[in-house]
Design brief:
Blueprint (H helix, E strand, L loop, with lengths): L11 E6 L2 E6 L19 E3 L3 E9 L2 E11 L4 E8 L5 E6 L1 E7 L4 E6 L4 E5 L6 E2 L6 E6 L5 E8 L2 E8 L4 E4 L9 E2 L6 E8 L2 E7 L6 E8 L10 E3 L5 E5 L3 E6 L4 E7 L4 E8 L5 E11 L4 E12 L6 E2 L3
Parallel strand pairs: 3-26
Antiparallel strand pairs: 1-2, 1-19, 4-5, 5-6, 6-7, 8-9, 9-10, 10-11, 12-13, 13-14, 14-15, 16-17, 17-18, 18-19, 20-21, 21-22, 22-23, 24-25, 25-26, 26-27
Length: 319
């Protein structure tokens, strides 16, 4: 998780849309605030509950169901699990999970095992299958049809974005594009990913996997680490992109490249992973809920929330 060493004031930052720019004003929501600077020589110390609930992803065929990662803090053991909100069922698929899983419309879930390879498993827990064998393979996401996926392979200082079929056979590479916590649109024409564009700026870009054309969706100046873009996910219409920093949720409308902030947050409510339901009506997210319990100690728990697609109507998931 992100270490929080200093207070962040409510600021404005510059959003860049190709040749034009806009000032986006940030304002923290109620009961949401940043911590003061740490008084300790090594920053804040952290305490955690017994279990953390992380990295959720909707079943694209059933918005009442999602896959997530549960970490037992005392041992570091991670479990890939499925929860159904309608029935209350919550069951284990497999263990030793790294990064966010991705649930395909084909019923298979992609995930990164502790060996840093891409694996898949059926949503009923059957047919655990290894797809890559070179290690250092990350961020795998399905296309809409579920017959291909894209992932990032790291080889020393080099990163490659590779498209493979559903059996793991490489089909193509994407030159000049480095996948990181990205998303593949339903029309199969766009794969999104954050990218650094300079020492004080970063952006969300999109590549057409068929032509290799790369386009900038939105950009933001980096005032501090909280302005770094992390996750993104396409809405089902393939024309709107949800993306986030450690400060806000944004939605960019591609036809006009117009961006709006739908949710702001802070140290006490720090959202991490995001995912959009198959019908586009809901967002699921993991969130660090944090509070000061001493002069230099933060109690930090990771929970999962579901909200409307505009960021309203947030509900905490209870396990």
């Amino acid at each position: 998780m992100i270490s929080l060493h200093r207070a962040i004031a409510i600021i404005s930052c510059c959003m860049l849309f190709f040749s034009c720019s806009k000032d986006i004003a940030f304002s923290l929501e109620g009961n949401c605030f940043d911590f003061p600077p740490s008084t300790g020589p090594f920053g804040y110390s952290y305490q955690y509950p017994a279990s953390l609930y992380l990295a959720p992803c909707f079943n694209p065929n059933n918005s009442n169901e999602f896959v997530y990662v549960r970490e037992t803090k005392s041992t570091g053991q991670t479990e890939l699990r499925i929860k159904n909100r309608s029935t209350g069922n919550d069951y284990l698929l497999t263990t030793s999970i790294f990064q966010k899983p991705d649930w395909g419309r084909n019923g298979w879930i992609l995930f990164n095992h502790g060996d840093n390879n891409v694996w898949k498993i059926k949503s009923n827990g059957d047919s655990l299958t290894q797809l890559t064998f070179t290690s250092s393979c990350f961020d795998a996401v399905w296309n809409y049809a579920g017959d291909r996926y894209v992932f990032r392979r790291t080889d020393g200082a080099n990163n490659y974005s590779i498209i493979a079929d559903d059996e793991g056979n490489p089909l193509d590479t994407l030159p000049g594009f480095i996948l990181s916590n990205g998303s593949w649109s339903n029309d199969s024409q766009k794969i999104s990913s954050p990218v650094s564009t300079g020492p004080s700026s970063n952006a969300i870009i999109s590549i057409n996997p068929n032509t290799g054309q790369i386009s900038e969706v939105a950009a933001i100046e980096i005032g501090d680490a909280k302005d770094i873009i992390s996750y993104s996910d396409w809405f089902p219409d393939s024309q709107r992109l949800l993306w986030k920093t450690s400060r806000s949720f944004f939605i960019t409308d591609l036809p006009g490249l117009q961006t709006q902030i739908i949710k702001t947050f802070c140290d006490t409510k720090l959202y991490v992973v995001i995912d959009i339901s198959g019908d586009g009506s809901k967002i699921i997210a993991s969130r660090w809920d944090q509070k000061l319990i001493g002069d230099n100690t933060i109690f930090s728990e990771s929970n999962i929330y579901i909200m409307n697609a505009d960021g309203t109507g947030e509900v905490k998931i209870h396990f």
